[in-house]
């Protein structure tokens, strides 16, 4: 009798494990939040995985507008006016895009159109702000795309690449 119960428990455990794995999305939705002075910063994005692929310069081409995540365009929200790399960004929600570069400086773009699929309909005439930010290699590997908001900056990291913008209010 105990053997039957143990076998049934094992089968159920395996089934639950497979069911949980089957529901895992390839690029799950993530949120990064933090405060910069009185401004609450929220970055909503889909977090793709490296999965053995070459990311920078291949999956994500250099010198082209990238949606800064997967699926829908990444959004960047600030509840107060802030300064990004010394340039004013009014309070609001923006589509966030990046032009990655291998030169050590990439471009962060804040676009008026927050809700869009990828960068397929991206229109530079809707840009509110473009800033040049330091970018380069990270000392550690990030399997999944990650954003981090700090009191004085925000950073994107994926694979061995990273870029950081200074923030203030």
UniProtKB/TrEMBL annotation:
Which residues are the signal sequence here? 1-22
Signal listed as a keyword = yes
Q: Does the keyword Signal apply?
A: yes
Please state what the protein is called: DUF2911 domain-containing protein
Arranged from A to Z, the UniProt key words for this protein are: Signal
One Pfam family this chain carries? DUF2911
């Amino acid at each position: 009798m105990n053997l039957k119960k143990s076998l049934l428990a094992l089968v159920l455990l395996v089934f639950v494990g497979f069911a949980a794995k089957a529901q895992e999305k390839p690029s799950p939705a993530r949120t990064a939040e933090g405060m910069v002075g009185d401004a609450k910063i929220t970055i909503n994005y889909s977090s793709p995985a490296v999965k053995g692929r070459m990311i920078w310069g291949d999956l994500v081409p250099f010198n082209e507008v990238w949606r800064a995540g997967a699926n829908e365009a990444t959004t960047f929200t600030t509840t107060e006016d802030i300064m990004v790399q010394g340039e004013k960004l009014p309070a609001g929600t923006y589509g966030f895009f990046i032009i990655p570069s291998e030169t050590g400086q990439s471009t962060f773009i804040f676009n008026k159109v927050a809700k869009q699929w990828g960068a397929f309909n991206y229109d530079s005439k809707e840009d509110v702000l473009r800033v040049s930010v330091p970018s380069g290699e990270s000392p550690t590997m990030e399997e999944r795309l990650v954003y981090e908001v700090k009191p004085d900056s925000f950073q994107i990291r994926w694979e061995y690449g990273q870029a950081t913008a200074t923030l203030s209010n």
